[in-house]
Design goal:
Mean pLDDT: 89
Structural class: mainly alpha
Shape: flat
Strand content: under 5%
Number of domains: 1
Distance between the termini: 50 Å
Radius of gyration: 17 Å
Low-confidence stretches: none
Length: about 70
């Protein structure tokens, strides 16, 4: 009989870097940022900083794609 072996969940390194940057900007722990983006806690300041970083990354990627078209 086979054992039910679960894969260990790994955090996405891009999200982990964004969370760390958000925590540094706002002055809270990484855990607090994870709680806010997961929805377990409400902190408008943390959420606003996280969303601004996410939007900035998206805009940067769009600009790079505009300058250097990938075919």
């Amino acid at each position: 009989m086979q054992k039910n072996i679960r894969k260990k969940k790994r955090r996405d390194p891009v999200v982990a870097a964004r969370v760390k940057n958000t925590a540094d900007i706002v002055g809270v722990s990484n855990r607090t940022v994870y709680r806010v983006i997961k929805g377990d806690s409400i902190n408008i300041t943390v959420l606003r900083a996280y969303m601004n970083l996410l939007e900035g990354e998206r805009l940067l990627l769009e600009e790079v794609k505009r300058i250097i078209p990938f075919n």
